Amino acid sequence: MEQTFIMIKPDGVQRGSFCEIISRFEKKGFSLKGLKLMTVDRPFAQKHYEDLLSKPFFGALIGYITSGPVIAMIWEGEGVVKTGRTIIGATNPAQSAPGTIRGDFAIVMGRNIIHGSDSVESAQKEIALWFPDGPINWQSNLHPWIYE
Ligand code: DAT
Ligand code: MG
């Protein structure tokens, strides 16, 4: 089944919001297949955001992501990449709808609290980078109550 990479950024960890953020994915019915608190160094952060290397905000973005611990997660479920992005909200919190994570918890783009893969292909790439040992293999007993 489809998987996505979700990461609570250092501001989300510092602000004491991570349980509420994680619970939105759990309540939806998605399955947690990996979770760890970790700090990343600059080369690792640059690899994660390599597609944005030429952007003027790249330096600030790398400084932000390496500024404290992050919570890296793998979530699994039907359509989880696209639905995960919907749960997270628009990149700029000023344009994120209320009810989305960024809409509810963030104000500016440079502190937008959470990352989610933007396609199935980038999800696979990001999961391989952040979870070299792969996902945890288990299935929730709620599965038949969430899927028909
Ligand atoms: P997203 O995180 O919604 O996938 P992205 O991949 O385009 O957005 O960019 C990665 C992060 O970089 C984003 O979460 C916040 C920052 N960012 C993006 N565009 C920016 C901009 N125009 N100015 C400042 N920061 C920006
Ligand atoms: Mg992105």
UniProtKB/TrEMBL annotation:
A GO molecular-function descriptor: nucleoside diphosphate kinase activity
Chain positions recorded as ATP binding sites: K9, F57, R85, T91, R102, N112
A Gene Ontology biological process term: GTP biosynthetic process
One family name in Pfam for this protein: NDK
The keyword Hydrolase is assigned to this record: no
Active site residues per record: H115 (pros-phosphohistidine intermediate)
EC numbers on record: 2.7.4.6
The reaction(s) this protein catalyses: a ribonucleoside 5'-diphosphate + ATP = a ribonucleoside 5'-triphosphate + ADP; a 2'-deoxyribonucleoside 5'-diphosphate + ATP = a 2'-deoxyribonucleoside 5'-triphosphate + ADP
Domain Nucleoside diphosphate kinase-like intervals: 1-138
Top-level EC class: transferase
Keyword annotations of the record: ATP-binding, Kinase, Nucleotide-binding, Transferase
Cofactor entry: Mg(2+)
Transmembrane segments: none
Keyword Transferase: yes
Family: Belongs to the NDK family.
PANTHER family in alphabetical order: NUCLEOSIDE DIPHOSPHATE KINASE
Protein name: Nucleoside diphosphate kinase
